[in-house]
Every structure is written in C-alpha cells, then in structure tokens.
Amino acid sequence: MLLESELIGVSIINQSAINLGYSVENAIYSSNLLRLLGFSLKSKARKSRNKHCIQWKRIIAFSKEGIVIASEREIILPKQIPDIHEAYLKKIEVMGMEIKSQEGVLIGIVKDIVIADNNGNIMGFIASEGLLTDLIDGYSYLPRSKCKFNDAFGCLTVEDDFEDVLIHHPLGGLKKILGIDITNQQKI
User: In which domain of life is the source organism classified (predicted)?
Assistant: First the structure.
C-alpha cells in the first residue's frame, strides 16, 4: 500500500533509473474517488505552460529513486486521456476534505489517502478527528468501503455510525509514547 503524501514530489524515472526531469505534483482521482487515475507532473527544468501527467496504468514500479515508467513517451498532456482530462479539470482535493456523518455532523478531516500499489484503488483514508483525539489516540483509518463521496457538498459521508467506522490504532498518539496499553494485553 502507498500513501499519497509519500508520492508528492517523487521523481519520475525510466527503467534505467534515469531521472526524466519531472516530479509528482498532485494525484488525479476518479470522480467517485474509487481509484487513482494518475499524477499531474511538475517539470524540474522546463518552463512549459502545458501541464503533463502520467496514467496509473503506465507506472511500472515504485522504487527508492522514484516512480518507474517505460520511457518519456508515457508523459502525456491530460487532454489526451478523456477520464484524466475530466478529472484534471474538476480537480478534487482529497487531502483536507471533511468527513461527515449522514446527519451532516463533522467527524473528521482527511489527512492522507491509502492507495493499493497494484491497481491504484483507494483502500481508505487516514483521518484526523481533532487535535485532542489525535494527540491521545493518533490518527484514525476510514475504510473506503464505509463511506461515499458526496459531490454536491465536496465531502466524504460515512454510511454507518462513525464510532463503528473509524478504526483507531490501539497504540497511537500519546498512548504509544507513554507506553499506555488500554487493552491490558501487553506493555510496550
């Protein structure tokens, strides 16, 4: 699995590990937020007015040096692929998106996106439930299957009681730092 935040700024390289002069600027998601379509790119040297991108399906691998593609020909303009062009124009900002209950109550903010590295599907979201909760418990995990994207309000809506949906890491936040085990199963 990959986190979107770890991919921003990563270099694009070919199979010979030669840097192609581009880095990831933003993720481009499908309009229903079910999968990652590709990445918009930033040129490190060229001052082009045209924005470039790569399709998810053209990525060969992820390495320490960067995102591996076959060649520079895989770097395209968004308008060359209709799905990417539509998503590029719509530009859904997922990081920082509100997470609300069905009643419209704010229950959290998206801090990161968990992506399946084999197919680009969104697995879930790393969520903040507020400073105090984050400090004590750490961030929570919201599985993609437990929420839907509400395009009209530009937010994620949980489909069940949010207490049952958000998964807290049992040893997150201060609990981990202080060695507190709330389950009394094991001391750190």
Answer: Bacteria
**Element at 147 (helix H, strand E):** strand 147-150
| Extents of the domains making up the chain | 2-90, 98-178
Token digits for 21? 């002069």
State pTM to two decimals. 0.81
**Residue in the block written with tokens 């790119």:** 41
Helix (H) or strand (E) holding 68: strand 67-69
Question: What's domain 98-178's architecture?
Answer: Roll (2.30)
Mean pLDDT in order along the chain per 10 residues (188 residues): 93 94 93 88 77 94 94 94 89 89 88 92 88 67 89 84 62 57 45
Q: Say how many C-beta atoms besides its own lie within 10 A of residue 117's C-beta.
A: 12
Whole-angstrom Cα distance, residue 48 to residue 42? 9
Rounded to whole angstroms, the Cα distance separating 121 from 117 reads 8
CA dist 133 and 174 (Å) reads: 10
Q: Which fold has domain 2-90?
A: SH3 type barrels. (2.30.30)
Rounded to whole angstroms, the Cα distance separating 76 from 95 reads: 25
